[in-house]
């Protein structure tokens, strides 16, 4: 029975991957797969408990999960799952609000304009400087709204300077992903997968991964601009915006303030609040109490709207994660003797098969990876910090930085009019190469 149930679970796993590749709605896909992964182990548990297909060793090894009642299983998946994500959702909402503050005060656009001026008439240097600034901005900002708002400023500048469109969008998305390695909002989501793990305890690793991705992005830019190109105007129309004055120079440190405060021990939300009010104060947005209230309400509203699709996804994702824990005995029955427990072998597998992090596949935590993580955690022999690094690398590089199922990447491809196939050819090579480097550095420098 456990073998049959395990095979059915694996088939449903590939069904979800196929659904994601075809562009299906992931909110509905995750909800359906969570339900399937609840029903199948409950059927198996019932059969094993009543001796219809009796396997004493299987029962004894997994007694706690097999004895889970129907009522407890429903509560675990559909109630405890979403509730467990509460702190993460609050972090996401405050992070989205802070992102809106940085955009509305003109701080982001000022950083980009000043950086462009520093680059002068050297396209490659300008692109590299903008990539570094983008990374710094997204060490604290999060969400599709922030990505789009900054992208409509940066991408036209890059392409008007003669940077190839493919290079412009790839360098932009890689820069966003680099900042995410120490982004408190994204890492609070990762902590939900790994009990007891926080980025604050592994900052050296986070900064190292960020540095590797920034350096790699610079190499990509230099590769695409190695031949002299004539600057040309871009024909695409950017949204018409009211001309913004430059934000005051002291305000330009606001994007990195939440990260700095978090490193000094301040809670994530407090960091966002302090940095947000600092930005509003320095930029003259708090001149009157009523005006301040209107500004805060509008920015918070816009931030929540930006985060709404992510919030929906984050509410169903823990249902999937909890259901995966019920499935782990059946996955172990089928794959336990196949999946290696040796850390070096796992590093090599994750490096060689890194593209499986695309299309919400088994190497990304924002897709099918939760099930594979459940199997590896079920072994009980691999340290949490090692598993965290193992999965966070492809999740951040392949999924957040390169995958077309990511909303802001889909927007960027459409905005720059780069063919999807052309983007994937470049992004997969870049992401794969990065994963190989990062996984090997992680093993030999941190968790050997």
In short:
The chain is mainly alpha-helical and 448 residues long. It has 20 helices and no strands.
Compute the separation of the termini in Å: 38 Å
Q: Unreliable runs, pLDDT <50, ≥5 residues?
A: 230-244
Task: Describe the global form.
Answer: globular
Number of strands: 0
Structure write-up:
With 448 residues, the protein is mainly α. Helices cover 72% and strands 0% of the residues. The protein has helices at residues 2-21, 26-49, 56-61, 63-66, 70-83, 86-104, 107-119, 123-137, 144-160, 165-180, 184-193, 203-224, 257-263, 268-282, 289-335, 343-352, 369-379, 384-400, 407-416, 420-445. Helix 7 runs antiparallel to helix 8 (123-137) and helix 16 (343-352) runs antiparallel to helix 20.
Q: How would the blueprint of this fold be written?
A:
Layout lengths: L1 H20 L4 H24 L6 H6 L1 H4 L3 H14 L2 H19 L2 H13 L3 H15 L6 H17 L4 H16 L3 H10 L9 H22 L32 H7 L4 H15 L6 H47 L7 H10 L16 H11 L4 H17 L6 H10 L3 H26 L3
Helix pairs in contact: 1-2, 1-15, 2-15, 5-15, 6-9, 6-11, 6-14, 6-15, 7-8, 7-9, 8-10, 8-12, 9-10, 9-19, 10-12, 10-19, 12-20, 13-14, 15-17, 16-18, 16-20, 18-20
Relevant terms:
mainly alpha; 0% strand; single chain; 448 residues; 72% helix
